[in-house]
Design brief:
With 555 residues, the protein is an alpha/beta fold. The protein has three domains: 249 residues, HUPs (Rossmann fold); 158 residues, Glutamyl-tRNA Synthetase, domain 2, CATH 1.10.1160.10; 116 residues, Ribosomal Protein L25, Chain P. The protein contains 13 helices and 27 strands. Strands 12-25-26-27-23-24-13 form a seven-stranded mixed beta sheet, with helices on one face. The protein has a seven-stranded mixed beta sheet with strand order 21-18-19-20-14-17-22, with no helix packed on it. The chain has a four-stranded antiparallel beta sheet with strand order 4-5-6-7. It is elongated and about 100 Å long. Bound molecules: adenosine-5'-triphosphate (ATP) and magnesium ion (2 copies). The site of adenosine-5'-triphosphate (ATP) has 16 residues, from helix 2 and strand 8. Keywords: Aminoacyl-tRNA synthetase, ATP-binding, Cytoplasm, Ligase, Nucleotide-binding, Protein biosynthesis. This is Glutamine--tRNA ligase. GO terms for molecular function: ATP binding; glutamine-tRNA ligase activity. Belongs to the class-I aminoacyl-tRNA synthetase family.
Length: 555
């Protein structure tokens, strides 16, 4: 038997199309508008389009849908390519720009005019809205609707030639002002807009609308299956009308799927742009951003994002995915890959009074208990170490199995210690350091390592540890309740004011000296961390917490 791709409703449509010879091949495209950075929702669309092409031995284009110059920039064109590539997808030579089709799109518009299917309309934007009617009321025909073909051709040519001011005229399709589908009530195809385009410069002062440019771009590229999000379902009749009226066969097929929504996340580019422009975050790649570049800087792996996209599947109706699933995917990926190391985020000094001053030793520490092939490393140990402040309580509740006066714990990979004395600042009462003794007989891996105590703590040798900065992140958006993109106006009220915590006095084990930017570790008992690619340096290591260890994902 042949290769059977995993089935989702889109694959079922494709199977049927291939069986019925509607198409004899599969060709998809990912069509971002270069007006911002890609986000995790785009990753879903990328994985879907490139995945479907691969599953069907077909092709997938990367096409910049750059028909609206007002917000488009080269910076975005470049970041989008970097992000798609980083996710692990390859368009090879199939990189296209809708703006490369401007001349063809113009010619098609002339054809529509010649066949009596488009006209130049002088109504203002406001009037066009008023004439369009409502869902319950048919629209009114424009007084310009019955201009002659000759007049329309002349006016459209002059629109292109720059004879008319911005917004003074549009080209409209002549369809049906009484259609129950508002998109079919003589939609605008072209508008006059003097705006510099990042590729075509000032060559054009008329620009095509998405609903017109998109089906034709698909047709020009011989796309078979044009996958888009659900809000375009109502636009499909116009997609089909455009291609059918121009006699284009075989017609690419528009298929809609539900866009990805995530809890605690707003994805619309408009909102992400505001976060960046108003300096709520440190750029599009801030580790809290749901952008691909933000996730990358945070420490997410391409594999974890692809795995996430696979797991959520494709749906026909909108829903909200728990962001805990994305976090689950990165934990799954890093569990067997990330070396374990020790880092103390909020240090409390601890002196082992019976450990000889000036003595040090190297302990054996496994790099990853989940993956013995990762071997072991040497961990320096000495008389003074740091432990985590909250691993000690002077007056602990009953089941506190960490350190307390008179209580014993094991130091991971090292010895059992006992807390003998608490040194405090006399005036403030602040705990300055702990005095402990260690039991030399209990060295981990040694002959008498079997003695059991309830708690095991991570630690860093004060003599050897490297001072580092650690950045802890929380969700940018507090509210669990997801709102539609149109409703994000109030996002500022839902903004988490405490989404970033910078800890500047952390200590990490000396083995992290020279850790490469972008490398990922599990800090024992703390979570997964990644060396920041933007600000970390050899002199001052900076780590981003990718995710904590506790998995809140439940199926
Ligand atoms: P946004 O509304 O977030 O600004 P967009 O749809 O305007 O996104 P485009 O650059 O036009 O952004 O999107 C490129 C492709 O990615 C489109 O096919 C679009 O449907 C898809 N896409 C965008 N957001 C999502 C999402 N949340 N889930 C799935 N696909 C998405
Ligand atoms: Mg779009
Ligand atoms: Mg958009």
């Amino acid at each position: 038997s042949g290769f059977v791709p995993s089935t989702n409703f889109i694959q079922s449509i494709i199977n049927e199309d291939l069986k019925e010879h509607v198409y004899d091949r599969v060709h998809t495209r990912f069509p971002p508008e270069p007006n911002g950075y890609l986000h995790i929702g785009h990753a879903k669309s990328i994985a879907l389009n490139f995945g479907i092409a691969a599953d069907n031995k077909g092709l997938c284009n990367l096409r910049f849908d750059d028909t609206n110059p007002s917000k488009e920039e080269v910076e975005f064109v470049e970041s989008i390519q970097e992000d798609v590539r980083w996710l692990g997808f390859d368009w090879e030579e199939r990189l296209y720009y809708a703006s490369d089709y401007f001349e063809q799109l113009y010619d098609y518009a002339v054809q529509l005019i010649q066949s009596g299917n488009a006209y130049v309309c002088d109504l203002s934007a406001q009037e066009i809205r008023e004439y369009r009617g409502t869902l319950t009321e048919p629209g009114k025909e424009s007084p310009y609707r019955n201009r002659s073909v000759e007049e329309n051709l002349d006016l459209f040519r002059r629109m292109r030639a720059g004879e008319f001011p911005d917004g003074s005229r549009v080209l409209r399709a002549k369809i049906d002002m009484a259609s129950p589908n508002m998109n079919m009530r003589d939609p605008v195809l072209y508008r006059i807009m003097r705006s510099h385009h990042h590729r075509t410069g000032d060559a054009w002062c008329i620009y095509p609308m998405y609903d017109y440019a998109h089906p034709l771009s698909d047709a020009i590229e011989n796309i078979t299956h044009s996958i888009c999000t659900l809000e375009f379902e109502d636009h499909r009749p116009l997609y089909d009308w455009t291609l059918d009226t121009l006699g284009i066969k075989p017609r690419p097929k528009q298929i809609e799927f539900a866009r990805l929504n995530l809890t605690n996340t707003i994805m619309s580019k408009r909102y992400l742009r505001e976060l960046v422009e108003q300096n709520y975050v440190d750029g599009w790649d801030d580790p809290r951003m749901p952008t691909i570049s933000g996730l990358r800087r945070r420490g997410f792996t391409p594999a974890s994002i692809r795995d996430f996209c696979d797991r959520i599947g494709v749906a026909k109706s909108n829903s909200i995915v728990d962001v805990a699933l994305l976090e689950h995917c990165i934990r799954e990926d890093l569990n067997s890959k990330a070396p374990r190391v020790m880092a103390v985020l909020r240090p409390l000094k601890l002196v082992l009074t019976n450990y000889p001053a000036g003595q040090e030793e190297l302990l054996d520490a496994e790099n990853n208990p989940e993956n013995p092939q990762m071997g072991s490393r040497k961990l320096p140990f000495s008389r003074e170490i740091y432990i985590e402040q909250d691993d000690f309580m002077e007056d602990p509740p009953k089941k506190f199995f960490r350190l307390a006066p008179g209580q014993e714990v094991r130091l991971k990979h090292a010895y059992i210690i006992k807390c003998e004395e608490v040194i405090k600042d006399e005036s403030t009462g602040e705990i300055l350091e702990l005095r402990c003794t260690y039991d030399p007989e209990t060295k981990s891996g040694g002959a008498n390592s079997g003695r059991k105590v309830k708690g095991t703590l991570h630690w860093v040798s004060a003599l050897h540890g490297l001072q580092a900065e650690v950045r802890l992140y929380d969700y940018l958006i507090l509210d669990e309740e997801q709102k539609k993109d149109e409703e994000v106006a109030d996002w500022k009220e839902r903004l988490n004011k405490n989404s970033l915590e910078k800890l500047t006095n952390c200590y990490v084990e000396s083995n992290l000296a020279g850790a490469e930017p972008g490398s990922r570790y599990q800090f024992l008992r703390q979570g997964y961390f990644c060396v920041d690619t933007k600000e970390s340096s050899r002199d001052k290591l900076i780590f981003n917490r990718i995710v904590g260890l506790k998995d809140s994902w439940s199926k």
